[in-house]
Amino acid sequence: MKVSKFFWQRIFFATNVFIFVYSHFVIANLSEGALKASVALDLTGDYKLSKNSDSEDRFSVRGAEMSFYAPIDHHSQGVLSLAAHEESGNARFEVHEAFFQFDSLLPRSSLTVGQFFLDIGRLNNWHQHDWPFITPPEVHKTFFAQEGVLDKGVQLSSLLPTPFYLNLTTGLTSGFNFGHSHGPGEKPKVPTHYLHLTSFFSLGSLDVQPGLTYLSRTDSQDEKTYFLGTDWTAKIKKGRQTDFLFQSELWYKNTSQKGVDKEQQKLGLYLYPQIGFASNFELGLRYDYLADLNLKDANENDYTRSHQALVPTLSYKPSEFSTFRIAYTAEFKSEGDDSTVEHSIQFQGIYILGSHPSHSF
Does residue 9 lie within any of the structural domains? Predict the structure, then answer.
């Protein structure tokens, strides 16, 4: 049977109408939140100002991150975060976060299953490009690695039935590695387990969020480590401008080995007050402190080892999608009778493309 030219014209027209309508429907769904995606780029430079500084004298892509998140169905949403980091001049690609989040299975609760940054303290919940400063505080870097503790497991966050805001997060993760390790690790005797209790209150225009953390694990060699921490965040924010920010964490670390009487104890903290001015500028000063508490020398006399630093940081934020920073670091290191002072300067440029997930506070 011979098909007329007019018939094919109608089919062609109908096909084009379908493609037009369908493509606009998909774009509309993406823009309305069915699927959101973002890209974040973190460029940093770290340079010596004194010969004894540990700075690498290098400008690098510290992180390039792609994030995707969307509702899966009426029960859950999914998050996938892919990141590339530059290590010793080479880029390393990895999955940062890949998890289900269930917000309706239990009343007043959110359940996370998969791979994620543990909800402990303050900084560990945030990616590096969201930090208010460039470099990690010494206590965070020493206890939890450069970026933070990443692991696979389950985490439950519940709003407790109290007359004031009180949220309890509990988690259990594999514990094969601790920190931000890329190796397979070994099965621990006791996996990583933790709880983080947070509250919230306002003092006039000042909003305050305090928190308490407990975390513990026992590795494959029977070395037990536990952490106790408290974190404090306070803000005065008007629209997009943060007029005042105070952020601090205090951590105690205890490590013990089976069959060994002596425990290793460390204490560390950072304090970071910051003020906003001239609409797009922020100026902060971070103080770092880290010390070993019970060191002994060969004669069993007390032996001191400590690290302190002052890090003034100036930030310029033309918009919510870009940030430029410059920081100066003065480090004061002491071990026994020896002490050194190191000086360095850091630069940072950040941009975000797309719909970046917001933080709760």
Answer: no
Could you give the CA distance from residue 108 to residue 160 in angstroms, rounded to a whole number? 8
Q: Does residue 222 contact residue 230 with C-beta atoms inside 8 Å?
A: no
Region of 343 please: left (phi>0), alpha (psi -120 to 50) or beta: beta
Contact between 125 and 150 under an 8 Å Cβ cutoff? The reply is no
Q: Are 67 and 38 in contact (CB under 8 A)?
A: yes
Token pair, residue 179, equals 């920190």
Q: What is the mean pLDDT of each run of 10 residues along the chain (361 residues)?
A: 49 49 45 77 95 90 92 91 77 88 92 96 93 97 91 97 96 89 82 97 95 96 96 90 95 90 91 94 97 80 89 95 97 90 97 81 77
C-alpha span between 193 and 348 (Å, rounded):
34
Residues with Cβ within 8 Å of 354's Cβ and at least 6 positions away in sequence, in order, are: 36, 37, 38, 39
CATH of the domain at 308: 2.40.160.10
Q: Which two tokens stand for residue 207?
A: 């909003």
Residue 6: how many CB atoms within 10 A of its CB?
A: 8
Let me know if residue 29 belongs to a domain.
no
In a domain, 31, yes or no: no
CB 360 within 8 A of CB 339: no
Phi and psi dihedrals of 360, rounded to 5? Answer: -65, -35
Question: Pairing relation of β-strands 58-71 and 36-48?
Answer: antiparallel
Q: Give, in order, the Cα–Cα distances in Å from 295 to each of 151, 161, 171, 272, 313.
A: 31, 44, 32, 28, 33
2 inside domain: no
3-state secondary structure of 18: helix
| pLDDT for position 203 | 94
Coil/strand/helix, residue 229: strand
Tell me 302's DSSP state.
B
Q: Considering only CA atoms, which of 53, 136, 48 is closest in space to residue 340?
A: 53
End-to-end CA distance of the chain: 70
Q: What is the pLDDT of residue 29?
A: 47
Overall domain count for the chain: 1
Structure tokens at 359: 């933080």
Which 3 state secondary structure label does DSSP give 30?
Answer: helix
Range of the domain at 215: 36-354
